[in-house]
Amino acid sequence: MKLDKPVTGGPCWTELGTSDLAAAKRFYEGLFGWRAETDPRGEAGGYSIAHLGDAAVAALTPLYQEGQPVAWNVSFAVPDADAAATQVTDAGGTVLVGPMDVFDVGRFAVAVDPTGAVFQLWQARSFPGAGLLSAPGALGWVELLTRAPERAVEFYTTVFGWSVNASEHYTQWGIEGADFGGMVTMDDKFPHEVPAHWLPYFAVEDVDTTAADATEAGGAILMEPTSVPDGPRIAVLRDPQGAVFGVYRAADEK
């Protein structure tokens, strides 16, 4: 079972903070068929929502702070952002921004887990998050890369109540009977300067074609298309501005 809509505790949204918003729009519109619309209000700061048909699937934004990395960020749905922020700090994490209201659409906070990975909390009001999940061009999987997996399990199960399905090679996160993400232990193959982070994966019709299209559009392949035994075909890509993301096609999608 996979998530097809946001649920409490699960991933509900993903945002790209980029150094070149116009170029990022062109890249992802070409890669995934998105239609990006920028909020015209000055106080929105250039926040742009990408759509597939009528469904909102992701956001692209300028960098709002000096030193902010070009990166994708993942948001998790919570019923009460203030209460969730308290749970984050009680469990050993840190709240970096908020909680604060976003117009009338919701309330959010930015936090970092005890292993150094940044994530966001989203309390929906008029905007629940992604209108489409686990469909081509939409978010379908999120992966935590960390150097302290045991501490990460302790933290996220405490804050969100996730189930943990651990095997010898991979740990999967789940909620309400659906696995929605996983965890990779960062070993010596990862440069020391790369921090722990959450990596979004977008569903695609063809991983190999998408990877080739990304390179032709000025991006790069960080992990070549690979078929996971009894699992999906995946690749990890980098956009022209440096943001890293994954793409996948589930094994049961023929």
TrEMBL record:
<dbReference type="InterPro" id="IPR029068">
    <property type="entry name" value="Glyas_Bleomycin-R_OHBP_Dase"/>
</dbReference>
<feature type="domain" description="VOC">
    <location>
        <begin position="10"/>
        <end position="124"/>
    </location>
</feature>
<dbReference type="InterPro" id="IPR004360">
    <property type="entry name" value="Glyas_Fos-R_dOase_dom"/>
</dbReference>
<feature type="domain" description="VOC">
    <location>
        <begin position="138"/>
        <end position="250"/>
    </location>
</feature>
<dbReference type="Pfam" id="PF00903">
    <property type="entry name" value="Glyoxalase"/>
</dbReference>
<dbReference type="InterPro" id="IPR037523">
    <property type="entry name" value="VOC_core"/>
</dbReference>
<protein>
    <submittedName>
        <fullName>VOC family protein</fullName>
    </submittedName>
</protein>
<dbReference type="InterPro" id="IPR052164">
    <property type="entry name" value="Anthracycline_SecMetBiosynth"/>
</dbReference>
